[in-house]
Amino acid sequence: MAGQVALVTGSAQGIGAGIARKFAEHGARVMIHGLERKQGEKTTTALQASGFKVDLEIGDLKDETTCRRLVRQTVERLGRIDILVNNAAVTHRGNIENTSVALWDEILCTNIRAPFILCQETVKFMKRRSVRPASCKCIINIGSVNAYVGQAKLLAYSASKGALMTFTKNLAGYLAPYRIRVNQINPGWVLTEGERHVESVAEGKGPAWLKAALKTRPFGRMLYPEDIARAALFLASNELLTGAVLDYEQLPIGTLPEII
Known about the structure:
Blueprint: E1 5-8, H1 14-25, E2 29-34, H2 37-49, E3 54-58, H3 64-78, E4 83-86, H4 101-128, E5 138-142, H5 155-175, E6 181-186, H6 193-202, H7 209-214, H8 225-237, E7 245-247
Parallel strand pairs: 1-2, 1-4, 2-3, 4-5, 5-6, 6-7
């Protein structure tokens, strides 16, 4: 990935930070994006201290102008854009009875509308570089195994990830003639800073939640951001894959309520 430029949304922490680091370790220049400047600067500084070439842009992806500015700033400051990773998402809880219209709109705005705008803006620049190898131009969408059914308390989130999966396959077909590949990763239950807080504090399960959760995991452990980062590296560097959806920890439908 030496010399390539990647934009990874939601990369100030969690899965996005893992992907950004993995790409940087393999020679890419990476635009870090986050919602909170303090956390974004912390991640960016840590990567720069390791000798990696990264930059930072802060902004709320619910705003169309912010989405387009993020892509343009990547091109202006890092020279071009070869890889777009749509990772940023919100996972607020809600079922059919208690999900407000405002919450529904917020989740779909961030989880599917923003990737649409980011892809639309990115494609403009990627098409200009159509002579580059296919492996150097790709879009990776980070979905969720909840796209297939999802938990009752994740109605809007599950719907947004289902939409993203269809969007991925449709876009892959359209962009094939331009040698721009589009793939998706559907993670299962990933142990991130945010997930620790949600389970132990927001849902009130306390520190014992992790021990109980491990008993349900098919691999005997939780997934980590590093696992998803390796998958992203594979999709970014494999020029023979487009329109693919890689499911991580896809369990039978009857067990899906155990997955976040």
